[in-house]
């Protein structure tokens, strides 16, 4: 078996980003779309940590902390919007929310 | 050797959890599989000597954000949504994304890893990743972004409260 290098982590990160992107594009349920966004942010974090290890400084880890902070804020606001949407439209499907379309 | 095996175990947890997250019909099952995926990512952080971040990942993601998700799933009635069709009609865009990433990966593999340089380590970071080292950088070099992050969280709190009010 080969030793694990940074490139392994980059491929894993790309695959996870791809899974998240597919989830955002194809799912209808807004809750699952928000979960897919979490997957995408985790892929970015894996990348940052891998390069932090590769370059031997902790700047990547500090950035990963900021990314996690953003993920928390995004989840809070996104789920708040979801609750407001459900109260007004009685749906959680992204393709049924089309009142801005003309 | 052990590192290699652990990497593949955690990578399988992460990717398998991710795939199951976006394919399960019930949103609660999706949330459980997302927790699996996030724990796999925490294991990868441990392998990369980022112990502080692994702790943050477990406490904040699994303990905080996922509880928020499950709470909202409880508030929002998803029984009806679980019976409807899962996917919208955007599969061609998704297939295009898959093709683009697969092409890039194939290109990388065909060139061989030796053709790409990733930058040399600046210092030997043996005690890298302990919380002391991270906090030193976070509270000196990145103090302004740290304070900005606190403002962002304040805005998020206010936004969430306003959004969850009875009448907007």
What does this structure look like?
- The complex is a heterodimer of chains A (102) and B (168).
- By secondary structure, chain A is mostly helical.
- Chain A has one domain (6-93): Helix Hairpins (Orthogonal Bundle).
- In chain A, 76% of the residues lie in helices and 0% in strands.
- In chain A, helix 1 runs antiparallel to helix 2 and helix 2 (30-55) packs antiparallel against helix 3 (59-89).
- The radius of gyration of chain A is 17 Å and the shape is elongated.
- Chain B is mainly alpha-helical.
- Chain B has 7 helices and no strands.
- Chain B starts with a helix and ends in a 5-residue tail after the last helix.
- The mean pLDDT of chain B is 85.
- Chains A and B meet through helix 1, helix 2 and helix 3 of A and helix 1, helix 2, helix 3, helix 5 and helix 6 of B.
Mean pLDDT of chain A: 88
Largest protein interface, residues of each chain: A-B, 74 and 86 residues
Query: How big a fraction of the residues of chain B is strand?
Result: under 5%
CATH C-level class of the largest domain in chain B is Mainly Alpha
First-to-last CA distance of chain B:
57 Å
Oligomer: heterodimer
CATH topology of chain A: Helix Hairpins
Label the structural class of chain B. Answer: mainly alpha
Helix content of chain A: over 70%
Overall 3D shape of chain B = globular
List the helices and strands and how they pair.
The complex is a heterodimer of chains A (102) and B (168).
Chain A (H helix, E strand, L loop, with lengths): L5 H21 L3 H26 L3 H31 L13
Chain B lengths: L1 H22 L3 H21 L3 H25 L3 H5 L7 H21 L19 H10 L2 H21 L5
Helix pairs in contact in B: 1-2, 2-3
Name its key features.
A: 102 residues, mainly alpha, Helix Hairpins, 3 helices, B: 168 residues, Four Helix Bundle (Hemerythrin (Met), subunit A), 2 domains, 7 helices
């Amino acid at each position: 078996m080969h030793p694990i290098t940074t490139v392994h982590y980059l491929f894993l990160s790309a695959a996870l980003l791809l899974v998240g992107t597919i989830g955002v594009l194809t799912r209808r349920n807004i809750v699952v779309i928000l979960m897919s966004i979490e997957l995408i942010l985790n892929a970015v974090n894996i990348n940052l940590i891998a390069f932090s290890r590769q370059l031997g400084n902790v700047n990547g880890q500090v950035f990963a902390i900021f990314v996690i902070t953003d993920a928390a804020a995004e989840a809070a606001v996104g789920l708040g919007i979801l609750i407001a949407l459900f109260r007004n439209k009685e749906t959680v499907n992204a393709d049924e929310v089309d009142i801005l379309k003309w | 050797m052990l590192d290699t095996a652990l990497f593949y175990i955690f990578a399988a947890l992460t990717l398998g959890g991710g795939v199951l997250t976006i394919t399960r019909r019930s949103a609660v099952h999706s949330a459980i599989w997302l927790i699996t995926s996030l724990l796999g990512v925490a294991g990868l952080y441990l392998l990369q000597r980022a112990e502080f971040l692994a702790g943050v990942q477990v406490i904040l993601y699994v303990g905080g954000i996922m509880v928020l998700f499950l709470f909202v799933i409880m508030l929002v009635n998803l029984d009806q949504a679980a019976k409807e069709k899962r996917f919208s009609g955007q599969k061609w865009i998704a297939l295009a994304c898959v093709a683009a990433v697969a092409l890039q990966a194939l290109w990388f593999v065909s060139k061989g890893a030796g053709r790409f340089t990733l930058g040399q380590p600046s210092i030997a970071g043996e005690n890298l990743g302990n919380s002391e080292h991270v906090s030193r950088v976070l509270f000196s070099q990145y103090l302004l972004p740290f304070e900005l992050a606190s403002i962002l969280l304040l805005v998020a709190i206010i936004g969430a409260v306003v959004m969850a009010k009875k009448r907007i």
